[in-house]
Amino acid sequence: MADEYIQVYTTTGSKEDVEKIAKLLVEQMLAGCVQVVGPISSTYWWEENIEAAQEWLCIIKTKRILFEKLSAAIQVVHPYRVPEVTAVPIVAGSKDYLDWLQSVLTKMK
């Protein structure tokens, strides 16, 4: 059962933007839960330069089958030209948590 679920990650430069994304994904029933973490420090390559920024991180719990819709929804409201939208499989979890996630996500398209 766990292999049908994923955690998706995206970052933004402001708490307001990341909270907007979190609320949107839950309201549109594309995620069962979104956790907001931050601020975090990011160091990365951008346009041939090493950049550093303070960002906020979304950790999104959803079904693998919803990834494309979820990614598209993020792209519409995300302020970055090239936002991070990455996913990793949930390979294991506590039975109670996965049962809860299943019950929430079964309501989703």
Give structural notes.
The structure is a single chain. This protein is an alpha+beta fold. The protein has a single domain, classed as 2-Layer Sandwich (Alpha-Beta Plaits), CATH 3.30.70.120. It is built from three helices and four strands. A four-stranded antiparallel β-sheet has the order 2-3-1-4, covered by helices on one side. Strand 2 (about 35-45) and strand 3 (about 50-65) form a beta hairpin. Helix 1 (about 15-25) crosses helix 2 (about 65-75). It is elongated and about 45 Å long.
Q: Could you name the key traits of this structure?
A:
elongated, four-stranded antiparallel β-sheet, alpha+beta, Alpha-Beta Plaits, 109 residues, single chain
